[in-house]
Write a structure and sequence with these properties.
12 helices, Nucleotidyltransferase, domain 5, about 375 residues, eight-stranded antiparallel sheet, alpha+beta, five-stranded mixed sheet
């Protein structure tokens, strides 16, 4: 049976909401949690690999039968507890008192799940074992979030995570983050286990929300067709109606202009007035940092939204992206196209918006 809900992730910046003299203590706590997650993740995945490879490591004879299960529940089991609990108990004992067990439990479940998906590739030798880095996100179970509210004075959503008071920083929010947070407080949507990312002295909340799929009067027998081209980012057709979404002049030329501007700034850095050394020289370059990626992400969001709105207006319950494999093949052969057209990113945005609207997506 098809699920009636969909999960979406939003990246929201958080600020530690305590007096200045207490912030260092809070930062120390978060970095300690991140370090323990980094160490625990590598330990868990190493133990899982050894468990699965135990027969190859110990060169058992063919008549030896065993199972990675609790010996109390299975006569050929070799564990003193369930398979999931083995790695959980290992990291609980190793990092007791240094990090909440809720974080380790969530981390263990996530790694167990991803390991099971990647296991066939490990056995074929087509993929190496995952190696987690020191900047690993910290799992944030729902039970670790308390006292969530909107503070009118601070003009921010405030809550405690791991007993650390924080508030949201939405800035000039042109997305739906504020609306989602308001709906969360009204309990119209559900918050799932999320993650906390510490990056460049900032805290980002990778919040996962569960939504009910949008209900529209869609008819599965009505099929909309869409193709991605160089002249127009998307060309859509349904019910003998054709629609061009975006244009080369709007998207590609603007992107090339940004690239040219960044190149001019990079060439001029050497001749800029120093004043405060490298920081002063690179000041103009920092202003354009990620400018191109932000522009592309915003335009592709608008294009994919227009496509889904077109399908809803035409009551199309099925959307077919035509000849995508051929288009991607052409893009790979032409470096200019692959560098500037973002086929994969646009396809990803169309996929999740179609799922949210209840439209079946078929990629040919």
């Amino acid at each position: 049976m098809e699920k009636s809900t969909i999960t979406l992730t939003r990246k929201i910046q958080l600020l530690i909401d305590v007096p200045q003299d207490e912030k260092n203590v809070m930062w120390e706590k978060l970095y300690r949690y991140q370090n323990r997650c980094f160490r625990a993740a590598n330990l868990i995945v190493s133990h899982l690999y050894v468990q699965e490879m135990i027969k190859d490591f110990f060169y058992f004879t063919e008549d030896i039968q065993y199972k990675l299960a609790d010996a109390a529940k299975d006569p050929i089991g070799i564990f003193t507890r369930s398979k999931t609990s083995t790695t959980a108990r290992m990291v609980f004992d190793r990092f007791r008192g240094e990090i909440p067990t809720d974080i380790l439990g969530s981390l263990n479940n996530t790694i167990q799940s991803t390991f099971s998906k990647d296991k066939p590739d490990y056995w074929q030798g087509s993929k190496s074992l995952r190696n987690f880095k020191k900047d690993i996100p910290i799992p944030l179970p729902v039970k670790c979030i308390t006292k969530m509210k909107y503070d009118a004075e601070k003009k921010a959503f405030c809550f405690n995570m791991f007993a650390v008071p924080v508030k949201t920083y939405l800035g000039k929010d042109f997305s739906d983050k504020r609306l989602i947070m308001e709906r969360l407080l009204r309990k119209e949507i559900k918050l799932c286990t999320s993650q906390i990312q510490l990056k460049a002295g900032k805290i980002f909340w990778l919040a996962v929300f569960e939504f009910e799929k949008e209900e529209h009067l869609l008819k599965p027998e009505i099929i909309a067709e869409a193709s991605l081209s160089l002249e127009h980012p998307i060309v859509a057709k349904a019910n003998n109606v054709r629609m061009n979404i975006g244009s080369k002049e709007e998207f590609l030329y603007r992107r090339l202009a940004i690239q040219a501007a960044q190149k001019r700034i990079q060439e001029g850095v050497a001749f800029a007035r120093s004043g405060k050394g490298a920081k002063r020289k690179r000041k103009a370059l920092h202003k354009t940092e990620n400018l191109e990626s932000r522009y592309v992400s915003h335009r592709l969001h608008l294009y994919s939204r227009e496509l889904i709105n077109f399908c809803i207006r035409q009551q199309a319950g099925t959307l077919i992206l035509k000849n995508q494999e051929d288009k991607i093949g052409i893009a790979k052969e032409q470096e200019f196209v692959l560098r500037n057209w973002s086929y994969y990113e646009l396809q990803t945005k169309i996929k999740y918006k179609a799922e949210k609207a209840g439209i079946e997506l078929i990629i040919t």
